Amino acid sequence: MKLEYAKDNLTQQPYRHYLKRYQEISPKVISESSGLTFHEKEQAFLIRFMGVLYQVTHPEFQIRYQEQGNGIYMLEENIDAQILLLRYLLDGNAVMSSGKMISYHDLPWGEVYYRQFQGRCIFRLARNYGTRIPEFRRIMESLHGIKKETGDAAYEFEFLEDLKLCLILWEGEPEEGFPPSAQILFSDNFPAAFSAEDVAYVGDIVMDYMKKCREIKKESRCENE
To answer: Which parts of the sequence belong to the DUF3786 domain (predicted)?
Structure first.
């Protein structure tokens, strides 16, 4: 899918910058830092992103999904996801997680961007799904999320190549003045892969995916009616 970037310089300029770097760097260097295998015959990497396997060519950076999903292919459709992937391939490092999950505030420089992340992602998660737990569960299951025994609903899922998130919801008691709340945790190998500023975009991309899931569900319900 070809995207139109010229309408928004806030995404067009970074995209072009990182694309140029990607096209100039050797796939061997990318493989060494990311741990991804470069397939010579296809001239491409195979990358699992939010539960879907994609083929990403080098040096063209053409992206094609390799598996049928629920119709949402963020890496093909979302320029922020593409920029994030480019930054990971260029500057990130693949490190095994110890299994520990950390909060955004615990990331290096996370305290600097925490308020923005809290407003853009954590409050948004609580506001949109704190009173819609069944819908939250359905969306998390579409990401092959693993149910966790914390909060009123919590799921852990892979965002990108062994980089995992855990989304947690508490319904609260609105009638008692306690609104729903949420938390987003990250596997402790995230700091090797992304800066705290990049991780904020991780949250944005997940929230955008969840919004698309809701829209698809509404469309399907209207068609059935």
So the answer is: 27-207
Measured between alpha carbons, how far is residue 55 from residues 6, 67, 76, 144, 220 in Å? Answer: 25, 10, 10, 20, 29
Number of CB atoms found within 10 A of residue 36's CB? 19
CA dist 169 and 179 (Å) reads 11
Please report which helix (H) or strand (E) contains residue 215, including its range: helix 196-224
Contact call for residues 154 and 166 (beta carbons, < 8 A) = yes
Instruction: Kindly report whether the global pTM for this prediction surpasses the value 0.85.
Output: yes
Q: List C-alpha distances in Å: 115 to 60, 106, 120, 123.
A: 37, 13, 9, 10
* DSSP element (H, E) containing 191: helix 190-193
In 3D, which of 188, 99, 210 has the Cα closest to residue 148?
99
- Smallest CA-to-CA distance from 107 within 31, 201, 36, 32 is with 201
Furthest C-alpha separation in the chain:
62
Q: Which residue has the tokens 């966790």?
A: 148
